């Protein structure tokens, strides 16, 4: 981990995802997540990176009460600050990383960290034990929004392409995380 990465951000240093490469490709295929989507996300990432806080603010305003509840407990300030920094870093990864084995592995880790298996463990905090799965699913709608001002100068066709690619990415992410919430057989 480099010194300027958030504490507990372990990209590239986690165990292998139990999701097979074939199952991963299968999800991408049905979602229609293509190389062009990956390129569009990379392009958007260059614009969004320097203005990430604006985007996070736009989303978190709408998820307010859920976010408040998820960090509650005696360590609320420390927890929301360190986990919030990793949240921002991980969201940017969704735009800037290539969706390879390392990405797949870190998706599994993020799923674990929302679920009962590992929530609170990275920051060693005493907070609520799980992010309810229904909140993950419902937040996809909110997190799909990328305000116009952040895509300034992009043609309307490309902006629509970026938004579609990002929606597919979020669905892919939460589908992968669901592996930490259900039994292997049911996944
Ligand atoms: C599609 C929706 C969501 C995405 C893409 C997302 C993304 C992320 C990412 C990237 C991290 C950082 C993982 C790490 O490196 O440690 C994170 C952590 C976290 N997120 Fe989310 N998140 C989503 C929904 C939610 C919702 C709805 C809540 C609760 C209201 C939530 C609560 C948390 C908490 C508590 C952590 C820290 C977990 C821990 O390490 O204890 N997330 N999220």
- Which fold name fills CATH's third level, the topology? Globin-like
CATH class group:
Mainly Alpha
SSE order in H/E notation?
HHHHHHH
Strand element count:
0
**Helix amount, in percent?**
55-70%
Q: How would you describe the shape?
A: globular
Mean pLDDT across every amino acid position = 97
Kindly give the count of domains.
Answer: 1
CATH architecture: Orthogonal Bundle
**Main sheet?**
none
Strand content: under 5%
Class per helix and strand makeup: mainly alpha
Description of the molecule:
Helix 1 (21-31) runs antiparallel to helix 7 and helix 2 (35-48) packs across helix 4 (76-96). Helices cover 60% and strands 0% of the residues. It has 7 helices and no strands. The protein has one domain (21-180): Globin-like, CATH 1.10.490. The model has no long low-confidence stretch (mean pLDDT 97). The chain has helices at 21-31, 35-48, 52-70, 76-96, 101-114, 133-143, 156-177. It starts with 20 loop residues before the first helix and ends in a 10-residue tail after the last helix. With 187 residues, the protein is mainly α. It binds protoporphyrin IX containing FE (HEM). Protoporphyrin IX containing FE is lined by residues 8-9, 63, 66-67, 70, 83, 86-87, 90-91, 110, 113-114, 119-120, 122-123, 131, 135-136, 139-140, 143, 170, 173-174.
Condensed summary:
With 187 residues, this protein is mostly helical. The protein has one domain (21-180): Globin-like (Orthogonal Bundle).
